[in-house]
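User: Quick sanity check before I run a bigger batch. Here is a single chain. Can you write out its predicted 3D structure?
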Amino acid sequence: MTAQRACALSDLVQDEARRVELDGVAIAVVLDSNGEVHAIGDTCTHGDISLADGFVDGETLECWAHGSAFSLRTGKPLNLPAYEPVPVFAVTIDGDDVLIDPAVTLEAN
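Assistant: Done. Predicted structure follows.
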């Protein structure tokens, strides 16, 4: 599979998450305060909640329901109650297009 257009870069709001679905994979796309775009799995591993409804703080996305924060770089949970990571996807910017391949996840560091 190849990268697909997830959304327009101009549609992203800094420090907010946006939910997209590509080939049945729910992904939270985030434009962080440094202007970097991240893409992580949109489902909290603790409570099956959309992370895109959560809160962005620096390089983390916090689930609104139970407060688990996930690293936007690695997908690893940074606190309980979540203990399983979410997938992280490579992002490519082409003009105003945010491209993501939902079939390819990055290795956690």
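The chain has a mean pLDDT of 95.

User: Great, the batch can go ahead then.
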